[in-house]
Amino acid sequence: MSSRLVTRSRLLLWGGFAALAFCLPLVFKSGFLVSLLCQMGIMVVFALSYNMLLGHTGLLSFGHAVYYGLGAFATMHALNVIGKGGSPLTTALLPLVGGLAGLLAGILLGYVTTRKAGTTFAMITLGIGEMVAACSLMFPGIFGGEGGVSGNRVIGKESFLGFTWGPQVEMYGLIVIWAFVCTVAMFALTQTPLGRMANAVRDNPERAEFVGYDTERVRFLMVVLSALFAGIAGGLSALNYEIVTAETLNAHTSGVVLLMTFVGGIGFFYGPIIGAILITVMQIVIGGMTHAWLLYFGLFFLFMVLMAPGGIASVIAVQRNLWTAGLFGRVLPHYLATALPVAILLAGLVGLVELSYALLAGDAGVGAGDTATKVMGMQLQLRSPGPWLAALAITAVGLVLTRWIGGRASLAWNAALSTLHGDKT
Amino acid sequence: MNAPAIRIRGLRKNFGISEIIRGVDLDVHRGERHAIIGPNGAGKSTLFHLISARLPVTSGVIELKGENVIGLKPFEINRRGLSRSFQITNIFHNLSVFENLRCAVLWSLGYRYSFWQRLAGLKDARLRAEAVMEDIGLTRRRDTPAGILSYAEQRALEIGITIASGADVILLDEPTAGMSNTETEEAVAMIRRVTEGKTLVMVEHDMGVVFGLADRISVLVYGEVIATDAPAAIRCNAAVQEAYLGTTLSHD
Question: What would the mean pLDDT of B34-42 be, rounded to a whole number?
Answer without folding.
Answer: 91
